[in-house]
C-alpha cells in the first residue's frame, strides 16, 4: 500500500530478509542448487519442517555458524597472504644495489 510507513521492526525484518537473499546469491552452492532444480524446497516434508520453529531456528543457527567459520577462515587466509607478501618484500634485494650491476 502506497504511503504506509513501516515500523522499525518491519524495516529491520525486511532488511534481514533482503540481506539473506543477497547472501544466498553470493553462495555458489545456492546458485548451483537453483540451477539444477534439486533444491530441498522441492520436498514437501522439508517445507513442512520449516514451519516448525525449532527446526527453523536450528537452520538459522547452522547458517550463522557457517558464515562465522567462513569469515574466520577468510581472515586467516588474508593475514597469511599479507605476512607472506611482507616476508617476500623483506627478502627481495633493494633496487639500485651495486652488487647486482
Rounded to the nearest angstrom, the distance between the terminal CA atoms is 76 Å
Low-confidence stretches: none
Structural class: mainly alpha
> Helical content, roughly?
over 70%
* Fraction in beta strands: under 5%
Specify the biggest β-sheet.
none
Task: Produce the secondary structure layout.
Elements: H1 8-25, H2 28-36, H3 44-51, H4 53-91
Note down, in words, how this protein is organized.
The chain has 101 residues and is an all-alpha fold. It folds into 2 domains: 8-38; 40-82. Helix content is 73%, strand content 0%. It has 4 helices and no strands. The longest helix has 39 residues, at 53-91. The relative contact order is 0.04. The model has no long low-confidence stretch (mean pLDDT 80).
Give short descriptive properties of this protein:
single chain; 0% strand; mainly alpha; 4 helices; activator; nucleus; Mediator of RNA polymerase II transcription subunit 31; Mediator_Med31
Write a short abstract of this structure:
Keywords: Activator, Nucleus, Transcription, Transcription regulation. One of its GO terms (cellular component) is mediator complex. By secondary structure, this protein is mainly alpha-helical.
Amino acid at each position: 500500500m502506497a504511503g504506509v510507513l513501516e515500523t522499525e521492526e518491519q524495516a529491520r525484518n525486511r532488511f534481514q530478509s533482503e540481506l539473506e537473499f543477497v547472501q544466498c546469491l553470493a553462495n555458489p552452492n545456492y546458485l548451483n542448487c537453483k540451477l539444477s532444480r534439486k533444491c530441498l524446497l522441492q520436498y514437501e516434508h522439508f517445507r513442512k519442517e520449516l514451519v516448525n520453529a525449532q527446526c527453523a531456528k536450528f537452520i538459522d543457527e547452522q547458517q550463522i555458524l557457517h558464515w562465522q567459520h567462513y569469515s574466520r577462515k577468510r581472515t586467516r587466509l588474508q593475514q597469511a597472504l599479507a605476512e607472506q607478501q611482507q616476508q617476500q618484500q623483506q627478502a627481495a634485494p633493494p633496487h639500485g644495489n651495486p652488487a647486482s650491476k
